[in-house]
Amino acid sequence: MDSAIMNPGETGTSGIYLVVFIAYIVLVLGFTFISKRISDADGFWTENRSVSGLRAGISLSATFMSISWSVVYGIEVFLQYGLGGFFVLSLPWIIVLSVFLWLAPRLRNIPVFSQPELISGKFGKSAGKLAAIPILLVFIIWAGAEMDVAASLLAGTMGMSQPLLLFIIATVIAIYMSFSGTNAVIVTDVIQYILVALFFIIILYAGFSSRPVNPIVLKLDFHRIQPLFIMLTFIAYLPGWLAETDIWIRLQITRNGREARKAMGISLVNAVLFVFLMPMLVAAFLPAGMTSGTKGVAWLLARIHHPFFVALAAVGLIAASMSTIDTCINVAAMTLSFDLTKKRTLSRNIAAVWLTAALAFLFGIYSNSLKDAFYLSSGILSTTLFLPVLACYLPVGKKTGVVSVLALAPVLTIVFYAFEKYGWFAIPGANGISYILISFGAALLLFFGGSALEPAGPKLSTDRD
After folding, report:
1. What is the spatial distance between Cα 261 and Cα 105, in angstroms, rounded to a whole number?
2. pTM of the full structure
């Protein structure tokens, strides 16, 4: 975990941040407590597929408008790569949401709720359970990484240790999610969306008031970002994001295909604003030579002095972290209780929420690299989940190939990541992520090789494992 980079002595706002933090906790707990309760086990996750496109779109938008992703990492890619940062984060995400906008009605009308359930329906229950494991792992990693960034920015300012702040965040989210599962996430996401948008506006104004534009951020320079790195980023992100569970869930909980498309349209507009334009503009007002998104946000926050705007920035920062953490815990807990257990009960759902929140807390304590967390986890989704999901829609791949990928690709991705991290191999210009290319190639070999080796015979039953 990174050490806290802000402290009360630097900002003089410790009391404001602490009061706002407590008030925000009371607010979200109050809203979720008075909102509707879900009493059936499946509805706890599915919302009985009755959510409007507006609420689903705002909820998904709040998820990716996170402190670690669109704020810290979104700013950081423009600081490090200039306008080339658009290819590293913004463009892949915009492409993914555009594809989902196009396919939304068709995907919404599939008579299954989760991706493991989809895979299980075509390739058997064991394949479905294997598909659930990387989803569980990835979303716990994302939740923990988000917690780590929130603690790095907030703990010192509020005068508490980072582990204590992580524990409070994980506990509060587990409490309000225990009330009504996905509904609690959507209720809080609507609040968090507004607050995060205000936070972006405040830090943008703080930057605008402090310095002239840093021209390097607005310059496209392929000496700073290699085309190979861009290609590997697309391989790492696009397949995995096209099979990403939190997007899938927002589609499935909507009332119909029309509402699903509306949700994706709202998300796409917000992606252009808050994953591309806002992070780029904020980065442009940071000092030349700064390359850390975390330090950049801290630098901007230290320049906000009016108590009212300090309070707004504080609550926006808190909301930006919790909007993503609760979604990631929601996906992980749903995967654990909906896809990995035979008996679905409300008590098991709640137990899964608390267990995944605890695991995310532990990962947050030991997390130390946003880049590693995002690339490795997205790489696991790309190498492990994309091909099996694709095989559910297209006449490619057989059960042996699908199971081979689900069982071996996540392990190989982690192994190749470790090999590259510790210097066993490297491809020039890949910026430390050549393991993605090798892992995806291995996944393709497993998929098509395993499918080719499967003996011809009668069509496999989808429910006999």
Report:
1. 6
2. 0.84
